[in-house]
Amino acid sequence: MQTIVENAPTNSTVSSTPTTVQPTVVIEANRSWWRLDLHELWKYNELLYTLCWRDIKARYTQSVIGIGWVAISPLVTIAIVTIIFGYWVKIPSDGLPYPLFVFTALVPWLYFSKSLERASTSVTSEANLITKVYFPRVIIPIASALSGLIDCLVGLVIVIAMGLWFGITPTWGILALPLFLGLALATALAVSLWFSALHVRYHDIGAIAPLLIQVWMYASPVVYPLSMVPEHWRAVYSLNPMVGVIEGFRWALLGKVPPDFSFLALSAGVVLVILYGGYLFFRKLEQTFADVI
Prior knowledge:
Elements: E1 2-6, E2 23-27, H1 38-43, H2 45-60, H3 69-88, H4 98-120, H5 122-125, H6 127-130, H7 139-146, H8 149-165, H9 177-201, H10 205-218, H11 234-237, H12 241-254, H13 261-285, H14 289-292
Antiparallel strand pairs: 1-2
């Protein structure tokens, strides 16, 4: 926070020549960490755009296939999962083609998991930038989470094309996809704000995040349908916000049964609480980032 104090001449000073008043700039630490100060984020929107675009170019620059990896990675995963869970284990898919059933869930899941993994360690990877200039540090994990939207959009196009191949067209619920995608973004950002702040002091977070993502995947209906979860456990199970996101994608793109919006509202409320707490926690610790990092 900067405070400008003007040094005005006193009444006892008499001079025949005009004097130039020089402002004194005092740089102080911002101790109001509990305030959101969202307007400050808007002031640095160009920096946010630059960091997002840099992350996108860094992933695909000097790559032979380029953005084609967005399709290759989930397609290989689908092939493996279909053979193991679709043909060997014979997990049901609610009457839908199993590859399409899994791919529709992988699009939001891969966006969420990769965003969480990148954002969790994003602050330490920008050590040179943090120690040189001031800007709201929270922009760094936000940029890491937003940069994956391009990959998600490409995946959506592939899902729609695959659905048309199987004779399935998206429903009017496709208009609600931004809502479900926004919930996936908020969930990734809510967790990564806690992790990225802690990762500055404890590098163990870099190993915990992939483990959490792996466990979280099996706690979400990616390779199995929600109908396999016992009904008396579904209220607790639906506290996982990715359950509503995945079921929402399947409803919008495949015409599946719509998700329970009461459970979806409950999980969204949990995400907002974690997001708000993570933002305040990040703001509290960011005052020492430059010293510790």
